[in-house]
Amino acid sequence: MSLLLMLMAACAPAGGRDIQPQAPSPGIEAPPGSDVPPGSDVPPGSDVPPGSDVPPGSDVPPGSDVPPDITGGAWRIRVIDSAGEEAWSFTESDLRAALERPTVLPPGMPGQFAHVYSTVNNWPTARFYAAEGYSVAAILMAAGLYETAQTVAFRSDDGYGVSLTREQLFQPQHYYPQVNEDEAGAEAVYPIIAYRWREGVSDLSGIRDDNPCLIIGQRNPYEHTNPAFVENISEIVVSDAPCEAWPPATTFPKPGLIAAGELVKLQHPDYGLVKIHYTLDGSEPTMLSPMYNPSTYRPELNVPLSITGPTVIKVLVCGYGKSDSAIAVFEFTPQG
Description:
- By secondary structure, the chain is mainly beta.
- The chain has two domains: 17-239, Alpha-Beta Complex (Sulfite Oxidase, Chain A, domain 2), CATH 3.90.420; 250-335, Immunoglobulin-like (Sandwich), CATH 2.60.40.
- It contains three helices and 19 strands.
- Strand 6 and strand 7 form a beta hairpin.
- The relative contact order is 0.18.
């Protein structure tokens, strides 16, 4: 099994840097029994408010500049293949050594990368992370699994985790300075396992050594990526099986005749793990269409649709770990 990471990388975008190998400086699967809502970006068992940069269990007051108790680079991550076998196990020094060997990365993918990342959590609140780390593509190449990977699961040592499809990992991602507003000033970024990072800062000078964390960019300035930021990664599980699709949404009440002004709820069996996008004008919904369920924590933001005239609702379900659903179409005709 080749342990080579790739060194020939595309030029880094403005505002970030593609890093040469050097010595290091000195978020959706809650565990069973957890009371953390599915899709939450608050680690299981944590009483830390959403958006806090204080690690779970830390006695550092929120907002403090005192670094958390971290491993100082003494971490190891296992990469597991579709057969359940360990394809590779690596430390930061293993990655650095592999990067020193001349070989080729997938087109446009760096080996190491540093940049500011924009994100939105499930409150929903816009946030920034400054981060430096190793690209997920380089790690999968080193494990010999990049070409066949269809779904990749990232798991922390406390049981929290997230799965992403190949498309979700390697579609173009961006940092948006105007996150949650518009695409102005967008810069290309890449999914990384960060070993130096910090939440709540928008300058690379603010980063510090920390436990490995999956950090990904946004495919649009409104995408809720923060629940996929998995801290303390201990295992990466790679599947070569074709990705499943999310089941389509349903409505309550069912389509057909309803009372004028009646409210229609959009429903899904995995409501906390997905985002539901819809249109009312007959157009096909996309990830940029209105989001029906923007918040895990504030149900008052998830507002049913009032039907006052003949209405066609088209609904798309998106979520990490599976392909988008088929578009569901519901027709309502109010009476009275």
